[in-house]
Amino acid sequence: MARVYNFSAGPAMLPESVLQQACDEMLDWRGSGMCVAEMSHRGKEYMSIAAEAEADLRELLNVPNNYKVLFLQGGASSQFAAVPMNLLRGGSSADYINTGSWSKKAISEARHYCSNVNVAATTEESKFTRAPVPAEIQLSGDAAYLHYTPNETIEGVEFAYIPETGGCPLVADMSSTLLSRPIDISRFGLIYAGAQKNIGPAGLTIVIVREDLIGMPIAGTPTMFDYKIHADNDSMYNTPATYAWYLAGLVFKWLKDLGGLDAMAIINQRKAALLYNAIDSSSFYANPVQPTDRSWMNVPFTLANPALDDAFLKGAKAANLTTLKGHRSVGGMRASIYNAMPEAGVAALVEFMREFERTQG
């Protein structure tokens, strides 16, 4: 059976060449006589894999020397708690921007640890169909950090700018956007991202944190949530997600071979433009997000007649276009077009959409 174009929001597609390399190395990684999944994380073979992956990620993102790169477990959702545990540093207040489902979850978790969570801006009144403009962000002045979600996976809303914080550390949940384009790491105090969208398989979480922000966790912080413990142990205080880390390293190599994040950004812009143009040029499809704030990665859209949703999904699956059903809280359709989604996949979706409109519209 031919491989499908998988538009899932995560776990998502991986580059085919990465999967092929992992397949070739499955029984014997470089003469070791072992699969990577069987290796001790303390062995010299695996230590070389981990070190090379970190070096490649640092190169791709141009991570400054005063930042730690951590390869953790627990998903991005565990970071909703780990961030306040580590970054309050004697304070009790934090600022959060609310732009959708994942922002709301981060805010809810932070309230367990902060006596004051200031919602510095929210777009809930618009049903999360836009990002706030800079003037709408009202910082509290005594916050330990400002947290935001640059790309909301469910609503398909993306910030076109990096918020200014006046020196307050900026924290970003980049689960659905990290590695999709270049970013200036120095603008952030901490970035975290679940791997299962642009980085690798589920089970791995990346944290990039400025060194001066770690080492003062709140009392009672579990050892496994203490960034300094992980930093001091090269992310190997316990057994890490070894195979996911290895596959992420292969993805980093793939990105470098492609030309790095500058090249990836151009490809991602083309893919998003192709899909949005198909939606906007039709009265049969619609995207609810303000055009200036549309996501490159997650494209929700609705059909003019929702009664046709099931037929659309059935026809798409027959055309090898899968996982297009929108999140239950939003409805409609959602096409997630992360790095590993080839341009041919987006073109195939657009072709199907036009043919479905011709026959059903």
Automatic annotation (TrEMBL):
| Subcellular location as annotated | Cytoplasm
Origin species: Chromatium okenii
Q: Which Gene3D superfamilies match?
A: Aspartate Aminotransferase, domain 1, Type I PLP-dependent aspartate aminotransferase-like (Major domain)
Recorded hits in InterPro entries, A to Z, give:
Aminotrans_V_dom, Aminotrans_V_PyrdxlP_BS, Pser_aminoTfrase, PyrdxlP-dep_Trfase, PyrdxlP-dep_Trfase_major, PyrdxlP-dep_Trfase_small
Q: What does this protein do?
A: Catalyzes the reversible conversion of 3-phosphohydroxypyruvate to phosphoserine and of 3-hydroxy-2-oxo-4-phosphonooxybutanoate to phosphohydroxythreonine.
Gene name in the database record: serC
Q: What is this protein called?
A: Phosphoserine aminotransferase
Q: Which CDD domains match?
A: PSAT_like
Cofactors (names): pyridoxal 5'-phosphate
Residue list for modification N6-(pyridoxal phosphate)lysine:
197
Which PROSITE patterns is this protein grouped with?
Answer: AA_TRANSFER_CLASS_5
Q: Which reaction(s) does the protein catalyse, per the Swiss-Prot or TrEMBL entry? A: O-phospho-L-serine + 2-oxoglutarate = 3-phosphooxypyruvate + L-glutamate; 4-(phosphooxy)-L-threonine + 2-oxoglutarate = (R)-3-hydroxy-2-oxo-4-phosphooxybutanoate + L-glutamate
